[in-house]
Amino acid sequence: MDLRQKVADAAVAELRVQLDADGVDQCGTWVQADGMFRMVGVAEAIIRVALDRSNADLVEEVARGIGGSEWQSYLLQAGDAITGARGALLEQLDPLP
User: Fold this and answer.
1) Residue among 1, 71, 23, 84 at smallest CA distance from 10
2) Cβ pair 93, 44 in contact under 8 A
3) CA of 91: how far to CAs of 38, 47, 70, in Å?
4) What is the pLDDT of residues 17-67, one digit of tens each?
5) Which of 5, 3, 1 is nearest to 59 (CA)?
6) pTM for the whole thing?
7) pLDDT of residue 97
8) How far is the C-alpha of 37 from the C-alpha of 16, rounded, in Å?
9) To 5 degrees, how large is the angle CA 29–CA 31–CA 37?
10) What is the DSSP string of the chain?
11) Residue 4 CB: number of other CB atoms within 10 A?
12) Cα dihedral across residues 35, 38, 41, 46: positive or negative
């Protein structure tokens, strides 16, 4: 499953939590929702899926950015950077002080 579909599925899952399941229809990456919902909740679900250290392509891309031609030595640091970015973004979306 590609990242676009994972992101759409995460958003739909969150919408179904906020709305009832009958109020959300999905066809691939297209979503129709009937009702009001917290957009931040949907954004959080997307961030959790998009910034996932188990996404090998993302980890490799970050490692290449850190280490250049020696990128394979930086896979662990890349995973840590992804986890840090994910945590920082989610913390900023958290409404609690």
Assistant:
1) 1
2) yes
3) 16, 11, 32
4) 999 888 899 998 888 999 898 898 999 999 999 999 999 999 999 999 999
5) 3
6) 0.78
7) 54
8) 10
9) 130
10) --HHHHHHHHHHHHHHHHS-GGGEEEETTEEEE-S---HHHHHHHHHHHHS-TT-HHHHHHHHHHHHGGGGGGGHHHHHHHHHHHHHHHHHHH----
11) 11
12) positive
Q: Are the C-beta atoms of 94 and 47 separated by less than 8 Å? A: no
Phi–psi pair at 25, nearest 5 degrees: -120, 145
Cα(90)–Cα(82) distance, integer angstroms? 12
Place of tokens 């906020």: 18
Distance CA 48, CA 42 (A): 10
